[in-house]
Amino acid sequence: MSKDTLRQFANLLSVVLALTINVLASVLPLNGQNTGEISDRFQVYFVPAGYVFAIWGIIYIGWIAFTIFQFRLSQKESPRLRRLGYLFALSGAANAAWLFTWHYNFFGLGVLVMLSLLGLLIASYLCLNVNRSSASGAEWWSVDLPFSVYLGWITVATVANVTDWLYLIGWNGFGIAAPAWAVIMIAVASLLGLLMALTRRDAGYLFVLVWSFVGIALKQVAAPNVVIAAWIGAGFMLILAVYSLIRPKTA
Q: At 137, is the secondary structure helix, strand, or coil?
């Protein structure tokens, strides 16, 4: 078996593993706990409404699309996919591992796993040179867009995960109120969105932030400052997403 074939099947097995664990987490559920119910235990403000988590359906479709695309004969020796190597396969394993840490209440370990997943996705994004390559058509839909959406969501999920853990250990936020910290996190995420718009024109990443910020605004109605910040952030990200779509390519 060639190195390219081994990489292709590693990606396939990773997707099968991650999808299986994600399904079991909801169907069983793992450790008798629903993922959303666990999240509701934490009285934090950087958490969106439940419907926002439906984005996982889009992420799953992206995983499947990428897996099928990389098996095309024309892609077996693709320099781009060779650069990606086993990063995607490792991200699938990290995704599955995080679900076990979350459902079995190992929240501190879960933060480390989530940070590892974020790191793997950032590395994948850079190796694929997302939105800077000449990808178009099937390649853009099966590679660039799925990795943009996945990275966007895991960026938001990582912030939420760290916030949950800090709440759990009773961190006082340097005396800054929890709603104020949520506003700060929305501002930081918005700056990341601005960076993505200016350097990558990554509308996929930006639309994920729009989706997430709107969900936060609808969820955190008891914290007016958070709601205002989330709506402003969502509007700003939407403008940047449209800008990224219509701005003429210069490279």
A: coil
How many structural domains are present in the chain?
Answer: 1
Domain that holds residue 112: 3-175
pTM above 0.90, yes or no: yes
Q: Would residue 196 count as lying in a domain?
A: no
Of 165, 158, 175, which Cα lies nearest the Cα of 212? 158
Q: Quick check: is 156 in a domain?
A: yes
Contact 63, 135 (CB under 8 A): no
Give the model confidence (pLDDT) of 30-75 as tens digits: 999 888 888 888 889 999 998 999 999 999 999 999 999 999 999 9
pLDDT band at 251 (very low <50, low <70, confident <90, very high): very low
Q: Considering only CA atoms, give the Rg of the chain.
A: 18
Distance of alpha carbon 151 from alpha carbon 134, whole angstroms: 20
Residue 195 lies in a domain: no
